[in-house]
Automatic annotation (TrEMBL):
It is found in: Cell outer membrane. GO terms for cellular component: cell outer membrane. This is TonB-dependent receptor plug domain-containing protein. It holds the Pfam family Plug. It is a multi-pass membrane protein. The lineage of its organism: Bacteria, Pseudomonadati, Bacteroidota, Bacteroidia, Bacteroidales. InterPro entries: Beta-barrel_TonB_sf, CarboxyPept-like_regulatory, Plug_dom, Plug_dom_sf, TonB-dep_rcpt-like.
Length: 838
């Protein structure tokens, strides 16, 4: 200080109590600028300074107090003890918040002191709680359902598209799924997802899901963590998810988090209800084609709950008596037809303590179809001609998931799930023919039997850690392992007897067993950089072991959000995905003849790259809007080369498929309006869906479901407490199909045996007529004197009876021109259901 006073003419002013006599042990000040010299001189001395011309005021640096931080954690539940997924826990004091995960768990690290917390969830009364935080502790919050929900203000929902970093995610509650309209009066998860932008439904009435150009097998369906392979009943009329059991559905179509892998196009994460921890409740429903029953309640109050639901079709109860009468009346022809399906869900949940929970989830789904035909004719020569045909089809799933959820610390939650999946498809067809003349010497018998059996068994585990070190970081780590056992088998038997002593028998069978191992390791971090920028980045590393080869792939994932204003945000994401299992099929329906097969040493896993950008806005308290664009490429797609049957022999399926690639891009726009009585949404998609299989066609061509434009308008209106209405209008460009462009003679002019044949210019070269329909539904509520709620539902599918094209016929006119005629058969379909809740 004295040297600076002498050389620079500085005058130091300070209080006498300030310790300026302490020795200076820093570097030499000579040669430094004056400002640099002052900073170096007082650094680490406990003295601060302020320079004003030639005077330097010295002050004692205030002692920096260490800010203590503690963690608040717990679960958010409803009034019956059911955990709430994606609920928001927001601290109004520090303006920091978080959302609950798929187990209703939250963790929020805050500074010591008093905090005002706001807990909110769509459809429930918001709760504000004041708490003093002086140590880390657990608080569980309980929200009560609010049937008179007013305006939806998304500023209180950290899971909203405007505030969340995640792209392409839609969360559906049971209210979203169980609308006032239901096809055949059976609410359907997949058909609800079909109304989301970027999703095509495929064939009318079917529960197909074609997301951003992907195939139906490129969607990962998870039921409480266990994968489902067969997700439809009645070849797509119904999905396999019982809406009475579903608590929440998270649907991802782009920007996939690193914790999901194994499919290319979408993730459908379905979570079922744990069950009422307070008292027993239930519901019965009878619909047009099916009925359901559901019960849930405590085995031990506030400790153990059971939730069980059964859905079954009952059309066979009518068809069986009708065909029985037909067989009694008709002597020449006897017909039998029996079809039914069922879904059985059961979930047992046990709360071991405040930090540990155990649950067992079971699912069984099965379709059973049998047909019988017998004809018995007396021939003019006195002989008899007998034909018998029998078909037996059984297909479905059996799933089990044993889950242990444990919270070792306030900031960390761990979860371990043991999973088992069994998928089966059995098809048996028997044809018997016998002919006997009046003479016993002329006898002929034929027996033809064809059987196909295909099973998949998956055994594995999923281990994950949910770590929230601070409100700015949400880290997920985990690994999954699955042992895949694929067993497709075919059998063919022909037995022929023409009166000889020995039968002429031809038997052929084939089987193909594949054992594969799939291991996934992932890490992801949801980072809030500042009030404008947030980032979700991660990596999914997958290993796939198959006889003769091992595949190793690293799939990076990144999503970024820029919060322009509290009501406007912009996002971008990049995702790489790898898929090791494939479904090869010759049909666009869910058929038991479809093969699920693994990647082998001869085939490559399917891989995709997807880029997406978006802009999201809230316009006042009632309106929200978004626009997203995506570009996606896919390699190593599989399809049948030229097999014309429903299913090739099991042993040779690898030789019957070809390898191709895809290119998909588009723009999606969504607008939503919500008030206390009215909910309205509009979803528009402009998309292109191209494929290229060089062994099939040398150039790019449009896919069958390349629907250029798609518009969905959906509205719900609440007249009063007793009446609600739903209406949904769908419009999209027609599906593509391949039609002939020429009809030419193949033989030379001087050849008398001239043949004509259709010539096709390129695959899917024609677009079917525009598709559109209106669905409406009504719910009528009534409360009985015993307090039970009765619900009458009336639904109309295709309300104004527009016959949409299902297939076409090509006709050659006399002048050589080709006329294409479209055909359809699905008119207005009314349905009703009656539900009673107790």
């Amino acid at each position: 200080m004295e040297r600076l006073h002498e050389t620079a003419g500085l005058n130091f002013v300070y209080d006498a109590s300030l310790n300026v006599r302490q020795p200076y042990r820093g570097p030499e000040l000579k040669g430094l600028s004056l400002s640099k010299a002052l900073k170096t001189l007082f650094e680490g001395s406990g003295i601060s300074y302020q320079k004003n011309n030639k005077y330097v005021m010295l002050f004692k640096e205030p002692v920096k107090e260490t800010v203590k931080r503690f963690t608040l954690s717990g679960h958010v539940r409803d009034s019956i003890g059911e955990t709430l997924i994606n609920a928001t826990v927001y601290d109004l004091t520090s303006r920091q918040g978080t959302t609950t995960n798929e187990y209703g768990y939250y963790s929020l690290t805050l500074s010591e002191g008093e905090h005002l917390l706001r807990i909110s969830y769509i459809g429930y009364t918001e709760q504000t709680v004041k708490t003093a935080l002086h140590k880390s502790h657990t608080i569980d919050f309980t929200l009560h359902e609010n049937m008179r929900l007013g305006e939806v203000v998304i500023t209180g929902d950290l899971n909203s598209p405007v505030l969340g970093t995640q792209m392409g995610k839609r969360s559906l509650s049971q209210t979203d799924i169980k609308t006032e309209f239901a096809l055949f009066s059976s609410p359907d998860v997949v058909k609800t997802i079909q109304r989301i932008s970027g999703v095509q439904e495929g064939v009318e009435l079917a529960s197909g899901l074609y997301v951003h150009g992907g195939n139906n097998d490129e969607n990962l369906y998870l039921l409480d963590g266990s994968p489902l392979y067969q997700i439809n009943h009645s070849m797509g009329l119904f999905s396999s998810f019982n809406a009475d059991m579903v608590k929440n559905v998270d649907f991802y179509k782009s920007g996939f988090p690193a914790r999901f892998g194994g499919r290319l196009s979408s993730v459908v994460d379905v979570r079922t209800n744990d069950g009422n921890m307070q008292e027993w409740h239930g519901a019965y429903r009878i619909g047009l084609l099916d009925g359901s029953v559901q019960f849930d309640g405590p085995l031990k109050k506030n400790k153990t709950s059971l939730n069980i639901g059964l859905r079954r079709s009952w059309l066979d109860l009518l068809s069986e008596p009708a065909f029985f009468l037909q067989r009694r009346i008709s002597k020449e022809e006897k017909i039998g037809l029996n079809y039914n399906f069922h879904d059985l869900n059961a979930k047992l949940t046990h709360i071991m303590n405040d930090r540990s929970r155990l649950s067992l989830s079971l699912y069984s789904g099965c379709d059973a179809l049998s047909t019988n035909y017998e004809s018995n004719w007396n021939m003019p020569n006195g002989g008899t001609d007998i034909e018998k045909t029998k078909n037996r089809l059984r297909w479905g799933n059996l799933n089990a998931a044993l889950n242990w959820n444990y919270q070792p610390s306030p900031k960390l939650m761990t979860n371990v799930t043991a999973v088992y999946t069994h998928n089966r498809a059995n098809i048996l067809r028997c044809d018997d023919y016998s002919y006997a003349s009046s003479s016993t010497e002329s006898t002929k018998k034929t027996h033809h039997e064809n059987e196909t059996r295909s099973t998949i068994d998956d055994i594995g585990y999923r281990a994950e850690a949910d770590f929230r070190p601070s409100p700015r970081h949400h880290i997920r780590l985990g690994n999954n392992y699955t042992l895949h056992l694929f067993r497709p088998q075919t059998k063919n038997l022909l037995n022929y007897n023409a009166g000889q002593e020995e039968n002429d028998t031809i038997s052929k069978q084939s089987s193909n067993h594949h054992t594969s191992h799939e291991l996934n390791l992932y890490a992801e971090d949801q980072i809030t950089l500042n009030k404008h920028w947030s980032l979700n980045s991660g990596m999914n590393l997958s290993l796939f072991f198959t006889p003769g080869k091992t595949f190793l792939n690293a799939d990076p994932r990144v999503a970024m959000k820029y919060q322009i204003t509290p009501y406007l945000s912009a996002k971008a994401s990049y995702t790489m995905m790898t898929q090791y299992v494939h479904k090869i099929t010759n049909s666009f329906l869910e058929m038991p003849t479809d093969y699920w097969v693994p990647t082998t040493a001869k085939l490559q896993p399917m891989r995709s790259h997807q880029w997406a950008v978006g802009l999201y806005a809230q316009m006042g308290k009632k309106w929200t809007a978004s626009i997203e664009g995506y570009y996606k490429t896919t390699n190593h797609l599989l399809q049948y080369a030229s097999w014309t049957g429903l299913q090739p022999p099991a042993v040779s399926w690898e030789t019957e498929v070809i390898d191709g690639k895809g290119k998909f891009y588009g723009i999606e726009t969504d607008v939503n309006y919500h008030t206390q009585k009215i909910q309205f949404s509009a979803a528009y998609t402009l998309s292109w869906n191209k494929r290229k299989f060089e062994d099939f066609y040398q150039d790019w061509y449009y896919d069958k479901f390349d629907n250029r434009h798609k518009l969905n308008l959906t509205g719900r209106f609440k007249f009063n407490k007793k009446t609600e209405m739903y209406a949904a209008w769908t419009l999209h460009s027609g599906n593509k199909m391949t039609v002939p462009t020429q009809y030419v003679e193949l033989a030379l002019p001087d050849d008398d045996n001239r043949q004509r044949e259709f010539i096709y210019e390129r695959p899917n070269n024609a677009t079917l007529p525009l598709y559109h329909r209106l669905d409406v539904g009504f719910n009528f509520y009534h409360t009985t004197k015993h307090g039970h709620q009765r619900i009458w539902n009336l639904s109309l599918y295709n309300a104004y009876c527009h016959i949409n094209t299902m297939w076409t016929e090509a006709q050659v006119k006399d002048d050589g021109t080709i006329r294409i005629k479209s055909r359809g058969y699905i008119p207005i379909v009314p349905s009703f259901s009656y539900t009673i809740k107790f």
